Amino acid sequence: MRRISVFVLFLVITHGGIRAQDRDSALIARLATEILVNGKAYENLRDLTKKIGARLSGSPQMALSEKWGVGVFTSSGADKVWMQECMVPHWVRGGKDMATAYNDKTGKDGKPLAILALGNSIGTGAGGIEAEVLEVTNFDALESKKDQVKGKIVFFSYRFKTSFANPSDAYRDAVVYRASGASRAAKYGAKAVIVRSMTHAPDNLPHTGALRYDTAYPRIPAVAIGLQDADWMSNQLKTAAMRVKLRTGGHFLPDTTGHNVIGELTGSEFPDHFITVGGHLDSWDPAVGAHDDGAGIVQTIEILRALKAIGYKPRNTIRFVLFANEENGLRGGEKYAAEAKRKFEKHLFALESDAGGFTPRGFSLDVSDLQFEKVQPWRKLFQPYGGDTFTRGGSGADVDPLKEAFAIPAAGLYPDPQRYFDVHHAASDVFEAVNKRELEMGAVNMAILIYLVDKYGL
Ligand SMILES: [Zn+2]
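Above: query sequence and zinc ion SMILES. Below: predicted holo structure tokens.
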């Protein structure tokens, strides 16, 4: 008797489990169909990138994109839309960056170099800087040549390693030269630095990105150089000295007011429990930030639109956040977390899309062992949509302060990484580089995760 009742109970549980999965599959199919058939993400990305363009913090386009965000959230059916004020740094490029190489062997005619000042870099002044170039392949080489650095332009030719299967690992490996190279060289009296771009794209486009000055040393100008010109310089320097003339105009204006733009679907059961999903609205200026992070922005908005369109009533309040100032300050992410903390809000989970609008492979999950176990059965629900690779790892820069402040689980969309660093922070990050279906599939997979966390928690 007892055995039979256990068996019956087992049947009821498993059957109930299957029915729940079927119901989830059905709702997910409606959500996916809504995004794939009636999706607005691609057209929203066209508007954001073509009508507004690059959106660096403090620029007029920053303000335009915030206004745009409010409008699109409203027309997408948000229950509530608002702007959360935060002060942002205001760095400007200050004109066209220029560099010319003069090689003893090639004579007096200089060769123009494809360069772009690094974000937050100071400029050279109107007269420019001209100095001999000292190439170092890495920081060890800098240390061993430190006596030769004074008065030179240090050329960091550290390579973006092709041996990493995931280019994000190559980026993490190399980016320290962009972030800290200037101060490391300034320590020994360098006048400026040229950094090999963080990419292995076959073109010659320089890739910008933020640097951080160490206040212990003088601030010196820093530029990124395209790979073809970097290779050319390395080759020339094997046999002859080279001088480079640099002219850049980067400088800071006083901090200015920016905003996180927030749209909300209010929870039906727990309106004061929050799930956050977002990307960053700012972008570097060589192009229009279509992959970085226009894609994450329009995917975030699309999830709100699709949930509303299929009539889904979330149990918890879902906040869709277009974060300010990820690229050169992270002030938006920090402000969002600080406000949440100040108001003693209850946060459950945060998801970010900031790795490009490419075919989704899955998610990078910053969660506990137990939570990682809990999400494993969900993978089946992602399989038809391609996002079923779950790995342990970081989530996203903008949601990181929230994750830290509340010790909550967080995740980042993990799109195929192979082409991201071809366009990252370069003139090639344009609308045309984004594929409509790949962009939409990213939104589909993010929407599924938001739905499952809302329904079952983590
Ligand atoms: Zn980004």
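Residues 2-38 form the longest helix (37 residues).
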